[in-house]
Design a protein that fits this description.
292 residues, alpha/beta, 434 Repressor (Amino-terminal Domain), Endonuclease, Chain A, six-stranded mixed beta sheet, 12 helices, 52% helix
Length: 292
């Protein structure tokens, strides 16, 4: 597994696809297959099949192979899912931080581990993957949703996520669309803001990172009412993470309609954003205003 892969996410994804393929079996094999019949094929109990489909069971790749044969899966489906199953029992990189990882966030960071590209739009804060350490610490201290005893875990998780996705081998390609107002919103001290804006420029010059500022003069646009993260994959449809009120949590969706809608939204926001060099120059000029 690469440093950014997530075995737990792979198990959940395999489980969903196994269930879908079992439900499609009548079209491919000419007969309906229940979880009890699948269990009989493997010589196991029906609850094991249910647990496998929910991504809660430690997978044996031979079991996955046998189910795929039973369900009439195609050769490409077999290759992909068996390879995933072989990778799905490695340790989860965020296990040391599991106390502060909600289910919806586990879906996000797991999806990031398999995605080729991430497009993030942010109108309130610097995107999480581009936050400096002091900025992260200031946000964590200010949040009423983070217990004081969990501050170090939350900070550690955010920084490790950045390292896994952007700085290790096989890094994620990131496009960050950031509202101009985010650059001016003070978080922590002026020193914190100087470090953050310097960090934003530095990251924006990495080959796998593109930072674009959406000018306030753009007015109302397709994403003005909410931040989002769009994940693009090589092997399946895009997924979307929608940020909501901190008390209400957030939503991660891999539904076709949601992915298509936010692909259009991202394209429309990109059209009104500054280009890369113009954006980095603007960030540097704003940084000068936090001169102390």
């Amino acid at each position: 597994m690469t440093p950014r892969s997530d075995a737990g996410w792979l198990r959940r994804r395999i489980g969903r696809e196994l269930r879908t393929l079992r439900e499609l079996a009548p079209e491919r094999t000419g007969r309906k297959i229940s979880t009890s019949e699948a269990a009989a094929e493997l010589g196991c109990t029906q609850p094991k099949i249910t647990s496998m489909e929910q991504g809660k069971y430690r997978l044996r790749w031979r079991d996955v192979r046998d189910l795929l044969d039973l369900y009439g899966a195609t050769a490409s489906e077999k290759t992909r899912l068996i390879n995933w199953a072989k990778r799905s029992n490695e340790p989860i990189w965020w296990a040391p931080f599991s106390e502060v990882v909600e289910d919806w966030f586990a879906d996000l960071i797991g999806g990031e581990g398999e995605a080729q590209r991430e497009i993030t739009y942010e109108h309130g804060l610097v995107p999480g993957l581009l936050q400096s350490r002091q900025y992260v610490e200031a946000l964590t201290r200010a949040s009423p949703m983070v217990d004081e005893q969990q501050h170090d875990l939350v900070v550690g998780l955010r920084l490790e996520r950045q390292n896994r996705l952007l700085d290790e081998e096989d890094p994620l390609v990131l496009e960050a669309l950031v509202e101009e107002s985010v650059l001016w919103r003070p978080v922590g001290s002026e020193e914190v803001m100087r470090e953050q804006l310097d960090h934003l420029v530095k990251m924006g010059r990495q080959s796998n990172v593109d930072v674009r500022v959406v000018p306030t003069s753009a007015g109302a646009h397709a994403a003005i009412d909410g931040s989002f993260i769009l994940l693009e994959f090589a092997e399946f449809l895009p997924a979307v993470y929608l940020q909501q009120h901190p008390v209400m949590g957030a939503r991660y969706s891999d539904e076709r309609e949601v992915g298509e809608a936010y692909t259009q939204v991202a394209n429309q926001v990109r059209e009104v954003a500054y280009g890369t060099e113009e954006s980095l120059a603007l960030i540097e000029s704003v940084r000068a205003s936090f001169s102390g």
